[in-house]
């Protein structure tokens, strides 16, 4: 029998499925629950166990990892008679890897503590590719002792893992991350349209740009999306729209001006309004093409 903690995983989407599979590869026992049967079948095929409810998944778990789209879903899976807090055992550790508002994380930690349950917020950056390759960047908020307990598990999922401060700090850093990523994608998209309209070999241009100061992880990860107009979702516009709402609201609360971020947030919102919310966030290129007169 393994001495590793038993893990419950709630939320097996684009990110959650490969991440849970990486824990299985690392030798952990993983029991999962999600709303899609095909995702439960995928977990079972990888060696995990499929649960019929949240209560069943978490009942015997030492560690509960949650990865759901937004704050309302985090609240839905944690609270109420069928939620995590009412069904997890005292002493369990919740690692919430969703990207949500900092205040939601703070409130969850407070409410969980009343049940004897520990919480850290641990949102990630790196997209689907980073999840598959287990090279995510993980920004954590919470107590040092809980971070130390979670670290071996997080090391099976990512490469850069940092405790950023108290509860909610991981979410604040993730919001900043999403601001930087969105602005970076927008700049890359504008450069792509400019280069193509100028008649330059786009692939050659992106290669040389990525070797200099203009280079970035965003350009490395999204170059083929731009070149091939492949917008299969690794991280959907719908989710980045949610994240831009988090960062603009949080910035307003602390009195930080985001002049460029506010513009990009509106561009993300407009792309979503045009029906592209289900596409990868590299589809910001489509918005620039439309503004430049192309029919897309």
TrEMBL record:
SUPFAM superfamilies in alphabetical order: 6-phosphogluconate dehydrogenase C-terminal domain-like, NAD(P)-binding Rossmann-fold domains
MF-aspect GO terms: 2-hydroxy-3-oxopropionate reductase activity
Domain 6-phosphogluconate dehydrogenase NADP-binding: 6-165
Record key words, sorted: NAD, Oxidoreductase
Pfam families on file: NAD_binding_11, NAD_binding_2
Domain 3-hydroxyisobutyrate dehydrogenase-like NAD-binding span(s) in chain numbering: 168-287
Superkingdom of origin organism: Bacteria
EC number(s) reported in the record: 1.1.1.60
Record-stated family: Belongs to the HIBADH-related family.
PANTHER family found in the cross-reference section: 3-HYDROXYISOBUTYRATE DEHYDROGENASE-LIKE 1, MITOCHONDRIAL-RELATED
Identification of the protein by name: 2-hydroxy-3-oxopropionate reductase
Natural source organism: Streptomyces katrae
């Amino acid at each position: 029998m393994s001495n590793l903690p038993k893990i419950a995983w709630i939320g097996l989407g684009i990110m959650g499925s490969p991440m849970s599979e990486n824990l299985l590869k690392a030798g952990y026992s993983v029991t999962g629950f999600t709303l899609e049967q095909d995702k439960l079948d995928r977990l079972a095929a990888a060696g995990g166990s499929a649960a019929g409810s949240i209560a069943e998944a978490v009942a015997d778990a030492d560690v509960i990892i949650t990865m759901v789209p937004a704050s309302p879903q985090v609240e839905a899976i944690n609270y109420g008679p069928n939620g995590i807090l009412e069904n997890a055992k005292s002493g369990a550790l919740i690692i919430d890897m969703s990207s949500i508002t900092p205040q939601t994380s703070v409130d969850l930690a407070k409410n969980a503590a009343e049940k004897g349950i520990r919480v850290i917020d641990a949102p990630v950056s790196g997209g689907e590719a980073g999840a598959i390759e287990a090279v995510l960047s993980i920004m954590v908020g919470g107590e040092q002792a809980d971070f130390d307990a979670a670290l071996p598990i997080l090391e099976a999922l990512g490469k850069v893992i940092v405790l950023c401060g108290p509860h909610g700090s991981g979410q604040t850093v993730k919001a900043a991350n999403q601001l930087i990523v969105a602005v970076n994608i927008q700049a890359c998209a504008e450069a792509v349209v400019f280069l193509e309209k100028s008649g330059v070999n786009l692939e050659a241009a992106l290669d040389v740009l990525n070797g200099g100061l203009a280079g970035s992880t965003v350009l490395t990860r999204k170059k083929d999306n731009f070149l091939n107009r492949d917008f299969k979702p690794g991280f959907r516009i719908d989710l980045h729209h949610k994240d831009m709402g988090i960062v603009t609201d949080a910035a307003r609360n602390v009195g930080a001006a985001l002049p460029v971020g506010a513009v990009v947030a509106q561009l993300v919102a407009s792309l979503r309004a045009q029906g592209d919310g289900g596409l990868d966030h590299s589809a910001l290129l489509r918005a620039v093409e439309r503004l430049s007169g192309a029919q897309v």
